[in-house]
């Protein structure tokens, strides 16, 4: 990626400088089951393949370093070991967690919080996951679990189809 004028990558600073820069901010990380991220990317047409299985193979073949940010493992994008996040908000619990964040910031929750139907979203993704997961070979399932192993270890995706 190309940096804009005045922009510097956080990783270019030493640990003391990073701590000083980030210390005054409330750091929030939004996470999502990696398998759900794959499904969404596929459904949005970001993959050039006609089947989900072919798309997954494209993801696996691209590897960790050549892949799109849409499907790269979260730990490679957000560096949870580098940045100490104050909140980690899991997709599927947005309504309750966003309400808490707005209250903490001293903002009126009712007027700013969108209508979210987390239970419907969770049910839909569960159904989609079952359908899409059934299209994958045992080898692809194993490779995906390995590809996202650090995300699955770092974040609470206990109901993920990729969890062991």
UniProtKB/TrEMBL annotation:
<keyword id="KW-0735">Signal-anchor</keyword>
<keyword id="KW-0812">Transmembrane</keyword>
<keyword id="KW-0472">Membrane</keyword>
<comment type="similarity">
    <text>Belongs to the sulfotransferase 2 family.</text>
</comment>
<dbReference type="GO" id="GO:0008146">
    <property type="term" value="F:sulfotransferase activity"/>
</dbReference>
<protein>
    <recommendedName>
        <fullName>Carbohydrate sulfotransferase</fullName>
        <ecNumber>2.8.2.-</ecNumber>
    </recommendedName>
</protein>
<keyword id="KW-0808">Transferase</keyword>
<keyword id="KW-0333">Golgi apparatus</keyword>
<dbReference type="GO" id="GO:0000139">
    <property type="term" value="C:Golgi membrane"/>
</dbReference>
<dbReference type="GO" id="GO:0050655">
    <property type="term" value="P:dermatan sulfate proteoglycan metabolic process"/>
</dbReference>
<dbReference type="GO" id="GO:0016051">
    <property type="term" value="P:carbohydrate biosynthetic process"/>
</dbReference>
<keyword id="KW-0325">Glycoprotein</keyword>
<dbReference type="InterPro" id="IPR018011">
    <property type="entry name" value="Carb_sulfotrans_8-10"/>
</dbReference>
<dbReference type="InterPro" id="IPR005331">
    <property type="entry name" value="Sulfotransferase"/>
</dbReference>
<dbReference type="Pfam" id="PF03567">
    <property type="entry name" value="Sulfotransfer_2"/>
</dbReference>
<keyword id="KW-0119">Carbohydrate metabolism</keyword>
<keyword id="KW-1133">Transmembrane helix</keyword>
